[in-house]
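Journal club prep — side note

Before the paper discussion, L.F. wants everyone to see what a predicted structure for a comparable chain looks like in token form. Sequence:
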Amino acid sequence: MARRVLVTGGAGFVGSHLVDALLARGDTVRIFDNLDPQVHGPARRRPAWLAADAEFVQADVRDADAVRRSLAGIDTVYHLAAAVGVGQSMYQVADYTAVNTLGTANLLQALVDERGAVERLVVASSMSIYGEGRYTRPDGREPRVSTRSLEQLRQHEWELCDPDGVELSPVPTDEGKALDSTSIYALTKADQERMVLMIGAAYGIPSVALRFFNIYGPRQALSNPYTGVAAIFSSRLLNGQPPLVYEDGEQRRDFVSVHDIVQALLLSAEEEAAVGKAFNVGSGRAVTVREVAGTLASVLGSEVKPEVTGKYRVGDIRNCYADISLAREVLGYEPRVSFREGMEELVGWLREQERPESTVEAHAAELAARGLTL
């Protein structure tokens, strides 16, 4: 049965791919997006790839009346609108809180006031809410630390160690791991997730949260220095510039194709057993940042080597990659795009784009000027 769907942030990277998939299966789609200039450029133009047969509402989630109007006639809501970026969130505290936390509050207030208006609400959460991922000790005992001290980071001692000096080993992170946000961005994403599931349970709004890991793919904003590392590295390599790698490049992440993210989003609106739960959505595979740079250079045939800065950004974590067992079991989710295939697709798309002048150095300088790098 065709649905009437609202996608907040629907002109963005993930949102536009989701809109395409929803239209392809016959749904009626309304896009709600403010065309943030950091993502869409100072002219705030509607991106060329955005589906013409979707209704488009240019508005901001901070505008409660606009949010309320956007819900008219809607039965399914995907809430993807958010300010994104760990580093930037640490000096644009009010903006991130207003967009992510208060913007979500506006949506939920409208749903509370129009009780029973929607049949499913799906919110985009983030792996950042975990802080560091799960770790284990060689002796099997429970680790006693969850963060790295500033003292060890200043000494370029990157790995987590217990107080007795035992180095901890990262393991896949499951949804039961305690949340430990290390940035304002992460804190606001935790707000979004908890608020949606809380209000959903209280008012009988079937709600699901998806904790996205590191997403990459076509349509990532190349003008935004806070976009995904894969797009930033690719763009720099295509311009003959070295990727800038923080710490020693051995930090591990879970890189997941935007196509697999869309798969999970569609499944989360269909499966009744998903209601009230949060799910990891990743590839289930750990990849180092150095490996990302190396794979992209290989795909491009580039001899440019990454520049390992040996610097730490406040709010960054060392390791976090997904245990996706719950999404497999409940949603029927299964990653389909391999890391190499996904990188090849990203590079192929990037070759066809006009590449703006890199703002990575300016971003790094901004963080340094504010004392947010060590």
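L.F.'s comment for the group: DSSP finds 13 helices and 15 strands in the chain. Keep this in mind when we get to the figures.
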